[in-house]
Amino acid sequence: MKDIKDVTKLSRRTRPSPPSAHDVARLAGVSQAAVSRAFTPGASIAKATRERVMIAADELNYRPNLLARSLIRGVSDLVGIVIGNTRNPFFFVALEQLSARLSRAGKHILVFTAEGGENADVQVEDLLRYRVDALLLMSANISEELAKRCRRDDIPLIFFNRRPRWDLDFASVTGANANGSAQIAHHLLEQGYRRPAYLGGPLDSPTNNERYDAFVGVLRGEGMDEPPRVNGHFERAPAMEAARTLLRLDPRPDAIFCASDFLAIATIEVARYEFGLDIGRDIGIVGFDDIAEASWRSFDLTSYSQPVVPMIEAVMNLVSGGDDQDMAAQIIVDGSLQKRGSTRRG
Amino acid sequence: MKDIKDVTKLSRRTRPSPPSAHDVARLAGVSQAAVSRAFTPGASIAKATRERVMIAADELNYRPNLLARSLIRGVSDLVGIVIGNTRNPFFFVALEQLSARLSRAGKHILVFTAEGGENADVQVEDLLRYRVDALLLMSANISEELAKRCRRDDIPLIFFNRRPRWDLDFASVTGANANGSAQIAHHLLEQGYRRPAYLGGPLDSPTNNERYDAFVGVLRGEGMDEPPRVNGHFERAPAMEAARTLLRLDPRPDAIFCASDFLAIATIEVARYEFGLDIGRDIGIVGFDDIAEASWRSFDLTSYSQPVVPMIEAVMNLVSGGDDQDMAAQIIVDGSLQKRGSTRRG
DNA sequence: GTGAAAGCGCTAACAT
DNA sequence: ATGTTAGCGCTTTCAC
After folding, report:
1. Is B320 touching A (CB cutoff 8 A)?
2. Residue A8 region by backbone torsions, left for phi larger than 0, else alpha for psi between -120 and 50, else beta
3. What is the DSSP code (8-state) at residue A16?
4. Strand D contact at CB of residue A31, distance < 7 A
5. How far is B269 from chain A (nearest CA, A)?
6. HSE (CB half, 13 Å, CA atoms) of B7?
7. Is any atom of strand D within 7 angstroms of residue B73's beta carbon?
8. Which residues of B touch A297 (CB under 8 A)?
9. Contact assignment for B149 to A86 by CB distance below 8 Å
């Protein structure tokens, strides 16, 4: 920046520019287009030519520049992902699956993480500049205005494990929040719990609200009152505080439905170590997601599963579905209730 | 693909092409170059012109195409990351930090996950095609050959939390494996444990071996024998099996140093729930990383911390250090021993 | 300060 | 099957 009197044409980089298709073409004695074809799977090129190209390419350590290809094709093969809650293991598993599936489809992931709850507009704007083929929001928020701009630009916006907060028809892939929560309510009642409480995430989280509403729906159907409820963040410290609040109630709830396993685990620890409660017998605790930790002996947590593989499969369909794909599909993937020790009274 | 008789110039995409700088220029009544300048921070452009451009850009919902910019500049502002072990929360914390720091530096993350232990060559090859500015391997392996090609292409390869398996001088950022493990050994001895064992990762993991060697070094210095040792994977199920093997030994070890917290937590559960041992009193257990879970009440695990923030800071220096940066720097970031209940005898 | 023009590395017509 | 040509959307000289 200070001295641009550099002699080379690359004033800012001392790094040598990598070999281009032209270099390979010259070395192989073919046209540059032939090099392009050699690297394009279905292209019409003679075996012998391709071979010569490949040898030359190998010698030069040539790799086609995907940036240039994307520029021409108008498609980047890049999928943008914004992860809102990196503390929840559920999202790692999802990211891993997605990475595997996308790379098989020749697509790549441009990832961002956004601090919990914060608006990810800035990150998303950045992503859009890369002309991503699709944008996946994992538990992250963007403004309604930006969402509308994506719609206007025809950039598929996919909500994962969360629906948009506004009433627009964007695609979403979620677990069976309503069904799962209803099953959980029934299970708690069957096990003889009579004073269930709810420990949830933010009140403006649609996922949270869907779970709560279905839960309450069942209780109401059984003639019960609305359960005590504490809402807050999807994070650990606030969750522990919320658990304390619930456990100090008089009469104390005899069961707590937590809106995610991550919250439920925090609740188990508070109940067990701070209140000396016997999990299952003294208090039933249920989570949602069925993350790996739920089945660990330390927690043995009853949970409604969100099957990552089918959920990712649904995402894949949306991403590579092409133009005639319904970009407003609301996909709900069923899970199943995993009954474990945390809701066993006997 | 079936019918290319499309009238438009875009035969494969029905998605309308986004507005280009040209479109904006026409609307604003300026040259296309002016548009470019309007979006380039330090460029020489009149305030009034920039404003007119911005208004037009806004109207069209224009965003500069970073792909095109990268093509010209020969630098993509993309950093490739391969995560080898997605089950270990340590890497997610690192990813989150990195994402935050990089996006402040105007760079973006192209991420891949590689199944544990597998060779990530394929993923890396892909990454290179995007002309990434640097490549970060988080606990992932690539072949020596590919590493050499990166060197040849002048693509900075950075090993995070692991050194290369071969004797080449690539940059690495690691925790204080030797120092930390030595501290752990001393701590165990101080606490009165006399028959420590080692539960480690793969034998070809340099990280694993550094930790083991330093651990044994201290024990030897105290005149003790080489401890019983089981090596395997950095995963849960094999770790549990390894823990069983160690705990069935006669005489049973009275302490186990696990090469990571993730392994240590699995070991705690086996010891507590399968062998009925009182953690701390009957058996001391130590981990490495000091992940968030280590301080959970359920585990209360003594661990040597790997401070993510300084480690990421070191990575940032390597990534944006530019050309005169030492691309073979071996950076070791000190942590500190967090003594907790899992090694408290009394 | 601004526009015209060249070209980054590649793909996709269009010829042959 | 292959080469030639024309750009993709932008940045960057180079004149003015």
Report:
1. no
2. beta
3. P
4. yes
5. 7
6. 0
7. yes
8. 269, 272-273
9. no
Burial A260-289 (b: 16+ CB within 10 A, else e): bbbbbbbbbbbbbeeeebebbeebbbbbbb
B73 CA: distance to closest CA in chain A (Å):
9
**What confidence category does residue A288 fall into, taking pLDDT thresholds of 50, 70 and 90?**
very high
Q: Check the CA dihedral B82-B87-B91-B92 and report its sign.
A: positive
What is the spatial distance between Cα A141 and Cα A160, in angstroms, rounded to a whole number?
11
Q: How far is CA A270 from CA A93, A278, B296, in A?
A: 26, 11, 10
Cβ-proximal residues to A39 (8 Å cutoff; 6+ apart), any chain: A53, A57, A64
Residue A175 and residue A305: Cα distance in Å, rounded? Answer: 8
SS3 (DSSP) at A277: coil
Q: Do A109 and B108 touch (CB under 8 A)?
A: no
Residues of A in contact with B95 (CB under 8 A): 86, 111, 113
**pLDDT tens-digit map of A181-222:** 999 999 999 999 999 999 998 898 889 999 999 999 999 999
DSSP category for residue A251:
S
**Contact (Cβ atoms closer than 8 angstroms) between residue A97 and residue B95:** no
Q: State how beta strands A337-338 and A302-305 pair.
A: antiparallel
Sequence-distant (6+) residues with CB within 8 A of A284 are A188, A191, A193, A196, A254, A255, A256, A302, A342, A343, A345
Coil/strand/helix, residue B29: coil
User: DSSP state, B151?
Assistant: H
**Helix ranges (DSSP H) in chain B:** 21-28, 32-38, 47-60, 66-73, 89-104, 121-129, 144-153, 177-190, 206-221, 236-247, 261-269, 308-320
| Highest mean pLDDT (candidates A99-108, A224-233, B98-107, B268-277) | B268-277
Contact A96, A118 (CB under 8 A): no
CA–CA gap between residue A251 and residue B262 (Å, rounded): 38
Q: Do A109 and B111 touch (CB under 8 A)?
A: yes
Give the residue from B208, B240, B241, B212 showing the smallest Cα distance to B228: B212
Residues 195-254/A with CB < 7 A to strand D: none
Q: How far is the CA of A277 from the C1' of C11 (A)?
A: 67
Peptide bond into A310 cis (omega under 30): no
How far is B174 from B180, CA to CA, in rounded Å? 12
Cβ-based neighbour number of residue B190 at 10 Å: 10
- Give strand D nucleotides closer than 7 A to any protein Cβ: 1-5, 7-13
B11 in contact with nucleic chain D (CB within 7 A): no
Instruction: Please tell me the distance in Å from A15's CA to the nearest CA on chain B.
Output: 7
For chain B, the maximum distance between any two Cα atoms, rounded to a whole number of angstroms, is 86
| Percent of chain A surpassing pLDDT 90 | 72
Judged by C1' against the alpha carbon of B47, the nearest nucleotide is C1
Residue A208, SS3 per DSSP: helix
As given in the structure block, the two tokens for residue A96 are 């891993």
Q: Cβ of B223 under 8 Å from any chain A Cβ?
A: no
Q: Is A161 left (phi over 0), alpha (psi -120 to 50) or beta?
A: left
pLDDT band at residue A161, thresholds of 50, 70 and 90?
very high
